Amino acid sequence: MTITHHLTDQILLAHAGGALSEAFGLVVAAHLSMCDDCRARLGAFEAVGGAILETCGTVPVDDGGLAATFARIDAADRRGAPAAQRARAPRRGPLPGPIADYLGGGLDEVRWRPVGMGVRQAVLCTAEGATARLLHIPAGVGVPDHGHRGLEMTLVLQGAFRDEWMRFGPGDVEIADAATEHTPVAEPGADCICLAATDAPLRFNAFLPRIAQTLLRI
Amino acid sequence: MVEDTTPDDWTSALLRVRDGRDRDAFARLFRHFAPRIKAFLRRGGMGDAQAEDCVQDVMATLWHKAHLYDPARATVATWVFTIARNRRIDMLRRVRPELEDLPWGPEPEPDQADALALRQEAERLGVAIAQLPDAQRSLIERAFFGDVSHSEIAAETGLPLGTIKSRIRLALDRLRQRLS
After folding, report:
1. Is the confidence at residue B23, as pLDDT, over 50?
2. Which of residues 147-176 of A touch B (CB under 8 A)?
3. A129 has a chain B CB within 8 A of its CB
4. How do residues B79-90 score in pLDDT, each as one tens digit?
5. ipTM metric
6. A179 touches A155 (CB < 8 A)
7. Nearest CA among B3, B139, B40 for reference residue A56
């Protein structure tokens, strides 16, 4: 897979610092599962976190802290396998593990809902004002011309789309902000499946999509 | 008693925990890192009792997950930081999508030279951060304490991203080589 469009330094720094909401964190985790380059860049930002941990000073811990920690370790050992070692379903199809975790399986498990013009969506999570959804856009179909009040991150999982300027294929992530007005269109040939996270409703430029937006809660 | 003071010692201590369940080595790691994790959490605004609980949890996780530690991929401090950050997110009751582990499994024979170079770069990175102007250093620290929102980072006012980027370039090249 050749990935052309990557995560920005700001997004990676926010992720390294633990500042991203669940929806954007899911897009980042899914992209990192597909992109060694961004994973290495995240590792470098995390190294900054390690350096800060070493230099941010010390606060004394309780006198019994070490003994209490050994007691936790021993209690966990008595309980058996640590909870941290969760089994993950084997990867199937175009979905990275972090998305498969939400679906409990592959694309077969997705409960799609129509949003008009043949486009379908499935909301995966909404928290802290941000929503992550899968979008299924039939080949050749466009998402209506829209701008953004906040941040929008779109990761292509299958197929490809183009906007006025660029092409986005599998693994590519498009990051759009309040300054971006665009009309993404799925390429002819194969349907396009994306994971999209937004932290504010989209702002459609035509009247009819605005009505549809009210009804469909895009 | 002689206290360990260098990152090399933290790596060998953690490997002794990993390979031999060595409690003395763990105690040395605890004495060094527990007060730093607590400072890190307190600077992010966590209360004293919760921070104390979180420190013990992070150190217990270090024990249980020691088999996942790869000294050529991260220093002990960096690894501890990621555990503490993840635990802090969990305590905020925020769901944290987990990465796939596929491409970065620990290698059977860690490359000693890689691990050493990584630690030296981490030390230089620490020096570079310490030398930043106060306002910039404070902002980058707050980004890691969890005290800066994503939109503040996106706005980038005063964040020394350029400095950080030039400093992490070497570490980045090394990590990329590990993946190729």
Report:
1. yes
2. 151
3. no
4. 999 999 999 998
5. 0.85
6. no
7. B40
